[in-house]
Amino acid sequence: MKTLFQIQNQTLFVLESWDKNSVADLKIADFMKHFQTQCILDFHHLQFIDMAGVRFFLALEYELQKKGIVSQRVHLDEKFDALFELCGKNYQRIVKREKKPFNIAKLFVDLGALSLDLLGILKRFICFVGEFFATFFKCFKKPQTFRFIAFLYHIENSALKALPIVILTALLVGVVLAYQAAFQLAQFGANIFIVDLVGISATRELAPLIAAIVIAGRSASSYTAQIGVMKITDEIAAMNTMGFSTFHFIIIPRVLALVVAMPLIVAVSDFVSIFGGMIVAHLNLDINFIEFLRRFKEAVELKHIIIGLVKAPIFGFLIGLIACFRGLEVKHTTQSIGIYTTKSVVNAIFWVIAFDALFSVILTQMGV
């Protein structure tokens, strides 16, 4: 094996050819121990070097510089110097990250800071809800001050225009639910019970929940982005300066629009998801539409439909309130609009699911 280098008096004499094969077994650490204050890289006897060889010397120079050892290249051929210059522009040393020792004190500090942040958000949200109800009761006492046209505008944009995606989602949920149930029920010859399963689960739980999640994804993000832009452009500050209430003009119409529209959306979602179940029952289990509806009337009590519809305005209230709150939290940067819009959607979906689970437990315990 040819000798690739010699080290004398803190000078590294580079010999022969340095390519990907010759440098594969060389280690930077073996070179580092020979140099204390300086390192002269003498390339006078270098015959050839490729990018792998150049990368090795760049890494060596990086480690030397890191330890405060001065390095210098001498007698480097022009064509090799050009290669060094080219590689040096794009070279980036990949350093292994040292594992930080586990610090239990820092863990408690971080938990404390996180808890304080969450308490701050909770405090601001409680104040927000209090101001919302204060403004709402003022509107209730003086109905002529209620912004009815804005209320109708938000019903159209936040709810009615969301109906196509709600209908499509509810139809798919009904089809999937019925299809999976059909396969299981057919094994026991209990085909007709698909009506009970689809009817109760769709009207009581799935249709309201799916409709609320779709509205949370579509309208909550829209509300937060709208209010966030109004805040960045100082439109809200200008309204407050002129004496117009933010809650009266911006928050109340939006939240009430969702509260009023959600039962309609859930009713449509109920109908469509059951229709999806009817199609699957007819195709897979030979249960025609008339037979399906007759069994639906016998098996699905009115209370299941009412429970689903009662939950709808509460979901709408939660979605509207969280979306508007997050919109007012937006800072004066365009980046924060994206951040708080994401938080708005995630928070709205989480609390819709959480309240649905809470309703389910309470109503089951009550025997309803």
From TrEMBL:
Name this protein carries in UniProt: ABC transporter permease
Entry-linked PANTHER family: ABC TRANSPORTER PERMEASE, ABC TRANSPORTER PERMEASE PROTEIN-RELATED
Keyword Membrane: yes
Gene Ontology MF, one: phospholipid transporter activity
Cellular component annotations (GO), alphabetically ordered: ATP-binding cassette (ABC) transporter complex
UniProt xrefs under Pfam families: MlaE
Keywords, in A-Z order: Membrane, Transmembrane, Transmembrane helix
Protein origin, superkingdom: Bacteria
